[in-house]
Specification:
Blueprint (H helix, E strand, L loop, with lengths): L1 E5 L7 H11 L3 E5 L4 H9 L4 E3 L19 H9 L14 E6 L2 E5 L11 E10 L2 H9 L21 E5 L15 H6 L4 E13 L4 H4 L12
Parallel strand pairs: 1-2, 1-4, 2-3, 6-8
Antiparallel strand pairs: 4-7, 5-8
Length: 223
């Protein structure tokens, strides 16, 4: 299996989430842009492979719309090996997943034997606005019931995390921004399922539409 953490200009959050992901998932890769040296350095410090690509600002074959401002679909395709020649392609049926660098995981990775080829999977996320709240939850002094669960479009797996089995011709669509990419990809599967063995604390305010063309939310304050 392979999991890609997308971290384009999220080098402030990556040092927090990367160790947590390494403790849960056996194979983790960071994906970022050539300009984001901070994320590249964090990946190197943690001994994690890093895919550095300019696909985020390029148009893939079959691209829909105008020039790429933040082509999340193409970037993830390259990092997972679904398109391009940067990463070796996954084997047919191999479990692939991508997650945003603002998602801190808690729980247990599901058994791969339970994952179907015709299904795209996700986990729920909860709003976490401060480092203090994150620390309290890690220590067990603040329960998940004190965090607001965030809504998904149609309750399906969307862009912050999607997991699926690789299959010939299965890759994310290419759009000028992150908008539409995730929902259109999810709808290409006959089934979807939100699993509960894991959940995420989403670090920082939700500002989805503004972030579709690249990060605009404030830096994560640890102090």
């Amino acid at each position: 299996m392979r999991l890609v953490i997308t971290s384009v200009k999220y080098g402030d959050m990556l040092p927090l989430v990367l160790p947590a992901w390494k403790a849960i998932v056996p194979s983790v890769t960071v994906a970022t842009s050539p300009e984001d040296r901070e994320s590249q350095d964090v990946a190197a410090d943690h001994g994690v492979p890093c895919v550095v690509t300019d696909a985020w600002t390029r148009c893939d074959e079959g691209h829909i719309g105008g020039p790429a401002k933040f082509n999340m679909g193409f970037g993830i395709n390259v990092a997972l090996g679904l398109r391009g020649d940067v990463v070796a392609p996954p084997a047919s049926g191999e479990v692939c997943a991508h997650v945003s660098a603002d998602c801190y995981p808690f729980g247990k990775w599901p058994s791969e034997s339970d994952l179907r080829t015709d299904t795209i999977y996700g986990f729920w996320r909860y709003e976490c606005l401060t480092h203090g709240a994150l620390t309290e939850h890690i220590r067990g002094s603040r329960t998940i019931g004190r965090f607001q669960r965030l809504k998904n479009s149609g309750s399906m797996p969307i862009g912050y995390f999607q997991m699926f089995r690789a299959q010939a011709g299965r890759w994310m669509p290419s759009y000028p921004t992150a908008g539409k990419t995730d929902t259109h990809f999810a709808k290409s599967f006959p089934r979807f399922e939100m699993l509960t063995s894991l959940y995420f604390l989403h670090l920082g305010p939700i500002n989805n539409h503004a972030n579709w063309a690249g990060r605009v939310v404030p830096q994560w304050e640890v102090a």
